[in-house]
Specification:
- This protein is mainly α.
- The protein has 1 helix and no strands.
- The longest helix has 33 residues.
- The radius of gyration is 22 Å and the shape is rod-shaped.
- The N and C termini lie far apart (78 Å).
């Protein structure tokens, strides 16, 4: 069994947490881009 000191465990959790956040933001960005292409904004008609 491998023992890990607190510092190594903390750094590992830090890297995993930050990496997970960056990946999640990237996925959300791609989903928003896809939805923007599927449902483009229609310009409003001006009433005369």
């Amino acid at each position: 069994m491998v023992t890990v000191d607190n510092f190594t465990f903390g750094v590992t959790m830090l890297i995993c947490g930050m990496g997970g956040t960056i990946v999640t933001l990237g996925v959300l960005s791609l989903v928003m881009e896809l939805l923007g292409r599927l449902f483009p904004v229609k310009p409003e008609k001006k009433e005369a």
